[in-house]
């Protein structure tokens, strides 16, 4: 405010100096007029300057008051901020103390968990060692059992071979006896079938321990009052044809192996007389280990229920008392299983039961001798 006042004074002095210079130059007669005008001009200038000074003063006061209010408001805000900062600092300190306590607890739990893990790992290692020992013992027991079973199977096969040889010898003696009776014109003894099926049928699942499957031949005979039914079956692998229905409505397959068998590419070929038909397995069908599957003809009235029941579409019953042959072919076209059912009209009469009993008694004695 003092600087502006000094400027105004300088302007006034300069104006006065101009006026005085002009007064010297003008006529002395008009000196009073000029002095009056000068006085009036000075008064106007003084009034204007005072007005401007008052305006400057008012502006300075209002600016000072505004800045003072701003500073007061800012001070209040800073005070509130300081209070909030102190509160946050206190809460942070409390949170740090809580987190430190939690960290201490978690560290204790972690040490306990580590100790527990070490104990469990030691127990697991001990259990593994125990299990390994038990498995070794079981493997040795299994090997011993398999060796005993193999020895028993070998003994059984030897006894079976001896029995078959004896059966053949008995048949030869029977034929000689029948020839002598015919030559001597005695009443002939009716021939009887030697039922080898009971012994040989149990050899369907016999396998060697080296993993190579033996070819299995099974012969069975069924007898009725007028018709004799002969069954023969063979298999080179785990899959065998277990049964052919005598009424011609189904055929049954059995998986004797220890593993599931995918039947993709396998075909079942049926021959009745000179008529042959083929059943093809679906690509996704699998015959489970130790399970059977029955393939029904389309007119048997049975719906398809895989994996236990399948339907041979477009194949009707081949009837009863018709010789039938079933062959299972692998994808390479090789025969892996076969079963034949033959029907024969029986010609024996009801006489000669005593002779048959005598032959069976001879067989029993021979078997006892072989067993001893």
Structure summarized in a few sentences:
This protein has helices at residues 2-25, 31-183, 197-200, 353-371, and strands at 216-223, 227-235, 239-244, 250-255, 261-262, 267-272, 275-280, 286-287, 292-297, 309-312, 324-329, 335-345. The protein has 372 residues and is of the alpha+beta class.
Can you tell me about this structure?
Residues 227-343 form the LTD domain. Belongs to the intermediate filament family. The protein is of the alpha+beta class and 372 residues long. It has a domain at 216-347: Immunoglobulin-like, CATH 2.60.40.1260. The chain contains four helices and twelve strands; from the N terminus they run αααββββββββββββα. It has helices at residues 2-25, 31-183, 197-200, 353-371, and strands at residues 216-223, 227-235, 239-244, 250-255, 261-262, 267-272, 275-280, 286-287, 292-297, 309-312, 324-329, 335-345. A six-stranded antiparallel beta sheet has the order 1-2-12-11-6-7. Strands 3-4-9-10 form a four-stranded mixed beta sheet, with no helix packed on it. Strands 5-8 form a two-stranded antiparallel sheet. It is rod-shaped and about 205 Å long. The termini are far apart. The model is unreliable at 187-225 and 347-363 (pLDDT under 50).
């Amino acid at each position: 405010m003092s600087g502006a006042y000094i400027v105004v004074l300088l302007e006034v002095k300069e104006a006065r100096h101009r006026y005085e210079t002009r007064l010297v130059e003008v006529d002395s007669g008009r000196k009073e007029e000029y002095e009056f005008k000068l006085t009036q001009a000075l008064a106007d200038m003084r009034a204007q300057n005072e007005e401007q000074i008052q305006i400057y003063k008012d502006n300075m006061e209002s600016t000072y008051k505004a800045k003072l209010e701003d500073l007061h408001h800012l001070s209040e805000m800073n005070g509130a901020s300081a209070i909030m900062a102190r509160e946050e600092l206190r809460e942070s300190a409390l949170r740090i103390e809580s987190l430190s306590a939690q960290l201490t607890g978690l560290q204790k739990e972690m040490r306990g968990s580590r100790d527990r893990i070490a104990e469990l790992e030691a127990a697991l290692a001990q259990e593994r060692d125990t299990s390994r020992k038990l498995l070794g013992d079981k493997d040795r027991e299994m090997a011993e059992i398999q060796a005993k079973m193999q020895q028993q199977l070998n003994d059984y096969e030897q006894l079976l071979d001896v029995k078959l040889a004896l059966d053949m010898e008995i048949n030869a003696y029977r034929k000689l006896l029948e020839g002598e009776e015919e030559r001597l014109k005695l009443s002939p003894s009716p021939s009887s079938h030697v039922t080898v099926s009971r012994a040989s049928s149990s050899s369907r699942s016999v396998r060697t321990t080296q993993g190579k499957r033996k070819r299995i031949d099974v012969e069975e005979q069924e007898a009725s009052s007028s018709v004799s039914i002969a069954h023969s079956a063979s298999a080179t692998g785990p899959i065998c044809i277990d049964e052919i229905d005598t009424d011609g409505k189904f055929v049954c397959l059995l998986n004797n192996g220890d593993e599931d068998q995918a039947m993709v590419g396998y075909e079942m070929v049926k021959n009745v007389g000179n008529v042959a038909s083929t059943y093809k397995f679906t690509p996704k069908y699998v015959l489970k280990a130790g399970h059977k599957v029955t393939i029904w003809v389309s007119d048997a009235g049975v719906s398809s229920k895989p994996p236990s029941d399948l339907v041979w579409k477009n194949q009707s019953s081949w009837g009863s008392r018709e010789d039938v042959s079933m062959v299972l072919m692998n994808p390479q076209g090789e025969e892996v299983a076969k079963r034949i059912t033959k029907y024969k009209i029986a010609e024996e009469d009801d006489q000669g039961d005593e002779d048959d009993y005598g032959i069976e008694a001879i067989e029993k004695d021979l078997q006892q001798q072989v067993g001893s």
